[in-house]
Amino acid sequence: MAIDYRWAMGQYDRLPELAAELVRVPVAVLVSVGGEPSARAAKAAATAVPVVSLFSTDPVRSGLVASLSRPGGNVTGISDFNVAIEPKRLSLLRDLVPQAAVFGVLLNPDFPPAAEQLRAIQAAAQTLGVPVAVLRARTDRELEAAFETVTQQRIPALLMANDPFFVSQREQLAVLAARHGVPAMYIFRDYVVAGGLMSYGADLADMYHQAGVYACRILKGTRPADLPVMQPTKFEFVINLKAAKALGVKFSENLLSLADEIIE
Fold first, then answer.
1. How far apart are CA 156 and CA 150, in angstroms?
2. Is 75 found in the same domain as 18?
3. Nearest to 140 by CA among 117, 165, 113
């Protein structure tokens, strides 16, 4: 079995042509990761090819599948429902910095689910009674500018929204957070391994594994329409104590006890 890869490097406008290239190879199964932009590109290009996608929002509401239990058509996959866990992520950040009068939220405006992400975060912030300052970045230069704004406005803590471009820049984001002395909450463990402070979200490695399982089942003859969209069963809260020490942040015993993994 051969696996052919294409990577858009966070440039979403390249995805349709990259998906079309893979269909022309041709491939027996097209696996798309990175949320809705790649899922939509795969679905549009692979009208006659089975597609397994990793979704970052509700794929039914996004129009990518007919239902979770019976997706129909040629698309199925795994949904991490990251938008639905924003209240938990913000709550953990609030527990770390209880004195914060405002939280920063960093979004990529080019990521299609960004508006839905922001609505979920703002609703969670309203419940907690803390306003959010919205920052936007779609390039390396804009990331640096966003952290300059965090410093200038004295924003005490930052919530990083889910975005494939941010994941690809996780090391830079960890460096910027350390340089500007701001505690940040990320979505995946990969950020914390790269030097970020903490993360809460679905187990990304497990989701990729499940995508591979679905791809293998399709290669063995199962139709995508008969494979229900899976939802994650494992979420992980990861803390980096080295990053905490560098930032001068101290985790409470309660937060430490909630952690699934502590990186020292």
1. 8
2. yes
3. 165
The DSSP output letter for 230 is B
CB burial string 135-158: b at 16+ within 10 A, e below: bbbbeeeebeebbebbeeeebbbb
Encode pLDDT of 60-107 as tens digits: 988 999 999 999 999 999 987 677 788 899 999 999 999 999 999 999
Query: Model-level pTM?
Result: 0.88
The two three-digit tokens of residue 94, written as one number: 């609030």
Q: In which domain, by residue range, is 30 found?
A: 12-79+203-233
User: How many structural domains comprise the chain?
Assistant: 2
128 token code pair: 């907690």
Q: Are residues 90 and 180 in the same domain?
A: yes
Please state, in angstroms and rounded to a whole number, the distance separating the CA atoms of residues 29 and 237: 33
Residue 75 to residue 80: CA distance in whole angstroms: 16
Tell me, yes or no, whether 139 and 249 share the same domain: yes
One-letter amino acid of 204: L
Are residues 25 and 38 both part of a single domain?
Answer: yes
Inside any domain, residue 4: no
